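Appendix C: a fully annotated inverse folding record. The material below is reproduced so that readers can follow the format used throughout the book. The structure is listed first as tokens, followed by the designed sequence.
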């Protein structure tokens, strides 16, 4: 499981010019799954994301978690995180989980985040999406499990 974490002031995702997910301050997560992912990876990643202390405190130090700032999460599926461009010019996506495996993983990840008390908005799995964000920092992390 790979997650690109972006700290944002605001973010939204659109499909066909229709806003389907929108948050204020919080985290934009681009999420990709591979064939070996399961409940262990999902639980670890949800705990890691929710607990990350990457928000500024009163002294402008990254000391606060999402809960500490009352932030939300926007989760967008992104199978291209498993793109391999080592050979040639066109990336290979053989390591990305096929939709029949990835959709349930995506849904369980979103449910797991919500079960941890976080407000979560989502994109639409498999759709062509436009994601707009305003960086806060910028702070960007790459997480893998």
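Designed amino acids, in order:
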């Amino acid at each position: 499981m790979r997650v690109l974490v972006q700290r944002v002031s605001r973010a939204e995702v659109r499909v066909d010019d229709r806003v389907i997910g929108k948050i204020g301050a919080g985290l934009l997560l681009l999420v990709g799954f591979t064939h070996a992912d399961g409940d262990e990876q999902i639980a670890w990643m949800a705990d890691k994301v929710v607990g990350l202390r990457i928000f500024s405190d009163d002294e402008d130090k990254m000391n606060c978690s999402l809960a500490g700032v009352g932030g939300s999460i926007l989760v967008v599926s992104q199978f291209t995180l498993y793109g391999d461009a080592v050979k040639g010019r066109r990336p290979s996506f053989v390591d990305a989980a096929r939709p029949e495996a990835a959709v349930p993983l995506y849904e369980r990840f979103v449910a797991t985040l919500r079960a941890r008390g976080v407000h979560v908005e989502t994109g639409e799995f498999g759709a062509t999406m436009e994601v707009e964000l305003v960086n806060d920092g910028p702070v960007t992390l790459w997480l893998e499990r």
